[in-house]
Design a protein that fits this description.
By secondary structure, the chain is mainly α. It has helices at residues 4-19, 25-44, 49-60, 63-97, 105-122, 127-135, 137-145, 149-152, 159-175. The chain starts with a helix and ends in a 5-residue tail after the last helix.
């Protein structure tokens, strides 16, 4: 059952979801169907169509709250997976960087920036986590192998993954601007 009130609600929900970087046509269709079921139940109880629509929407919840809950559910799993992937990539880059015969800090720095940038593009809400997940391993290895001020100075290497992660986040937000 498509009613203007339900369609307006679904449009508002879509706008709120997009603000949170969630695009899910199936969720919107499921919302539409669920609201239609609630409206039919309300009409079966003797409510007019308008009253049944209002009660169904009130029972379902404000689009802002529904979108925030949906984004939290999705981002929790996504962000945990991305953090694990960032750590794996960072450890791999550090392993290659520490390999005998490897002497190309520029490629290691570029790889960290690109990897963190990709994670920032996928998960724009936590660029700092991607930067640390990818970049902390080279300074950590330097501190473990040679605990000194010089090894501590290796933390400057974190500038590359931070730059990449925040550029990835900025690109994502430029491609998917927050609707007004």
């Amino acid at each position: 059952m498509k009613t203007p009130i339900v369609e307006l609600y679904v449009q508002r929900l879509d706008r709120e979801l997009r603000k949170r970087f969630v695009i899910d046509a199936r969720m919107l269709e499921g919302t539409r169907e669920h609201l239609a079921d609630l409206i039919q139940q309300g009409q079966a109880r003797g409510h007019s169509l308008d009253v049944a629509c209002e009660k169904a929407i009130a029972r379902f919840g404000a689009p802002e709250i529904v979108a925030a809950a949906a984004a939290a559910d999705r981002s929790g799993l996504l962000y945990r997976g991305l953090l694990v992937a960032a750590i794996v990539v960072g450890v791999a880059i550090a392993h290659i960087d520490a390999s005998p015969g490897w002497d190309d800090a520029g490629i290691s720095a570029g790889a960290m920036a690109l990897a963190a940038g990709a994670f920032g593009l996928i998960g724009p809400r936590k660029p700092w986590a991607w930067a640390l997940g990818v970049g902390i391993w080279i300074p950590a290895a330097a501190l473990v192998h040679n605990p000194s001020f010089g090894a501590l100075a290796m933390l400057v290497v974190l500038a590359f993954p931070f730059m990449g992660a925040y550029l990835g986040m900025a690109m994502r937000r430029a491609v998917m601007p927050v609707p007004s």
